[in-house]
Amino acid sequence: MGKKKSRRRGFPVAPAPLPAPVVDNHAHLPLLGADGVPLDDDDVALPPGAAPLTTAEQLARAAAVGVTRLITVGCDVPSLAGSVALAHAHRAVAAALAIHPNEAPLHAGVREVAPDGLDPAVRAHHRISLGDAVAHVAELARDPRVVAVGESGLDFFRTGELGKAHQVRAFRDHIALAKELGKPLQVHDRDAHAAVVETLLADGAPERTVFHCFSGDVALARTCAEHGWYASFAGPVTFKANDELRAALRELPPELVLVETDAPYLTPAPYRGQPNASYVMPLTVAAIAQQLELDLERACTVLTANTDAVYGTW
Q1: Nearest Cα residue to 264 out of 46, 99, 87, 26
Q2: Mean pLDDT over residues 286-303, rounded?
Q3: Model pTM score
Q4: CB neighbours of 11 closer than 8 A, spacing ≥ 6?
Q5: Mean pLDDT lowest among 3-12, 129-138, 220-229, 244-253
Q6: Roughly how many angstroms between the first and final C-alpha of the chain, as a whole number?
Q7: Omega prior to 264 cis, within 30 of 0
Q8: CA atoms of 243 and 157, how far apart (whole Å)
Q9: What is the Cα gyration radius of the chain?
């Protein structure tokens, strides 16, 4: 019997540079100290054995392949202020802030085993009430370096029946905040397409609404096109089995398509299982270009124009 291949744990090699600049509109930069050590190990989500890259290293690698700007997303209380600080420290970085839908029930005191079988990951900051947590988002989101409210929405994969009402409450609060501030909304939608659409329509979606890491089908893509909602695609659009996702992408007008990494998650093929970063995004851009039947340079131009239309420039 031959030796079993060890699973690769380090960051992927850099792909070929893009022919024109693009923007990663959703990533989670590590909150690292000046020495490159995570400020709080619990707040850095990387596969076991993967050493983190500093923000400076990530930005340098991204710029080298044409990913010239990115939005880092703070979606729990410990990461909110740090995300704003990163945006002030690095010209290429802007921030988006919210309470993640899976965080909302924990702030509301819900302690149920999730549908995915995991116990609730309760931490010290969940002693803050949900109302106070959202109020903290509202305070920080007024900063001009914060260009979006998000990611907020519904996640019925990781939250059970007791938590759903609190997710909806938080989602509605974030919708209202985005409209109050005149900033776009980044939507988290996992196994909750119908409920997300119902909530957006009932409350009135912000003028610029983005389905982050779009995971819907052709029907949801048509709904987005009907209402002028943007769909942002990440690494899963490159996965071999995701024909339905690629069909949904083809259903969208190109002017409503964005690109992201959701780093350090959702690394595109052929690097699934390794940590993701903005410099790996050219692989996703190429997949989007193919589905939209655009050459790579034209795809970069369209994606950048769409991103600027949603978030402005920074």
Answers
A1: 46
A2: 98
A3: 0.93
A4: 50, 53, 274, 275, 277, 280
A5: 3-12
A6: 56
A7: yes
A8: 21
A9: 18
Residues forming a β-bridge with 148: 96
> 196: exposed, middle or buried (C-beta count within 10 Å: 0-12, 13-18, 19+)?
buried
Give dist(CA 258, CA 224) in Å, integer. Answer: 13
What are the backbone dihedrals phi and psi of residue 101, each rounded to the nearest 5 degrees, phi first? -55, -30
At residue 33, the pLDDT reads 46
C-alpha to C-alpha distance for 37 and 143, rounded to whole angstroms: 27
166 Cβ contact list (under 8 Å, min separation 6): 104, 105, 107, 108, 110, 130
Whose tokens are 């997300």? That residue is 196
Mean pLDDT (the chain, rounded)? 92
Q: Find tokens 């610029």 and name the residue.
A: 208
Count of CB atoms within 10 A of residue 109's CB? 13
Task: Fill in the amino acid letter for 268.
Answer: P
Average pLDDT, stretch 238-256? Answer: 98
SS3 259: strand
Q: Is 50 exceeded by the pLDDT of residue 265?
A: yes
Neighbours of 271 (CB within 10 A): 18
What local confidence, expressed as pLDDT, does residue 8 receive? 58
